[in-house]
Amino acid sequence: MTFLDPKTKATLIGTIAVLLWALLALFTTVVKSIPPFQLVSLCFSVATVFSAAWISRRGPGAFRALRQPVGAWVLSVGGLFGYHFFYFVALANAPAVDASLIAYLWPLFIVLLSALLPGERLRWYHVAGAVCGLGGAAVLVSKGQGFDFDPAFAAGYGAALACSILWSGYSVLNRRYRAVPVEAVCGFCGGAAILGFITHSLMESWVTPDAWQWLAIAGLGLGPVGIAFFVWDYGTKHGDIQVLGVSAYAAPLLSTLILIVAGAAPASPAVIWGCLLIVGGAVLASKNILIRRRTTP
Question: How far is CA 121 from CA 6, 8, 129, in A?
Answer without folding.
Answer: 18, 16, 15
